[in-house]
Design brief:
sigma factor, alpha+beta, NTF2-like_dom_sf, 8 helices, RNA_pol_sigma70_r4_t2, Nuclear Transport Factor 2, Chain: A, 2 domains
Length: 194
């Protein structure tokens, strides 16, 4: 599953999420899934249809997303990185669409709408210029960046990975994966030289 899809699972009711994981990830049949969940095969099939429909609503259509090699996608990623590195909320406004969403795993809360996203990031995340440094990469066919945050001693430490859904009209979704191990998985060091 794509990282964006995994993050979107939090928006499904528990039963639909369980059905989707059992069927799509673990490859159980509808009958086996019904037995595990103590329900009927018809209920599993119905739950699967509803789960797929909801995920389709949440996920930008692939034809709308820019390839990470598209200069427009790279410009959006560069703008997002610069906004964080400079702690500049106004720069975020320039790269996010008005209907942008912001998700961060493993947290349950998410933001919808550019104003809400920028307010939250500006108030609680951006900090001061130099607190963040990011290195551009790609993840699941989308522009992404490995993220480093400056600790109390001034060292830039791995913080996770951010993935952007870049469209011709701006970034429609930002997903931050707060997992330091992902930085190493992407081939980057735990500590970054300033």
């Amino acid at each position: 599953m794509r990282l964006a899809l995994i993050a979107s699972l939090q928006h499904l009711p528990a039963r639909q999420r369980a059905i989707l994981l059992l069927r799509e990830v673990l490859a159980f049949s509808a009958t086996e899934t019904a037995e595990i969940l103590g329900t009927t095969t018809a209920a599993v099939k119905s739950g699967m249809q509803r789960a797929r429909a909801r995920l389709h609503e949440l996920d930008p259509r692939p034809e709308e997303l820019l390839e990470p090699t598209d200069p427009r996608a790279r410009a959006l990623l560069d703008g997002y990185i610069a906004a964080f590195e400079r702690a500049d909320a106004r720069m975020l406004e320039q790269v996010l669409r008005t209907d942008a969403t912001l998700e961060a795993t493993p947290f349950r809360e998410w933001q919808a709408g550019r104003t809400s996203c920028v307010d939250m990031l500006g108030t609680h995340v951006l900090g001061a210029p130099g607190d963040w440094q990011m290195v551009a990469t790609t993840a699941n066919g989308q522009p992404a960046a490995v993220v480093y945050h400056r600790d109390a001693e001034g060292t830039l430490r791995a913080d996770g990975v951010v993935v952007l859904a870049a469209t011709a009209t701006g970034v429609s979704r930002v997903i931050k994966f707060h997992d330091r191990a992902l930085v190493a998985a992407f081939g980057f060091p735990e500590l970054l030289n300033p």
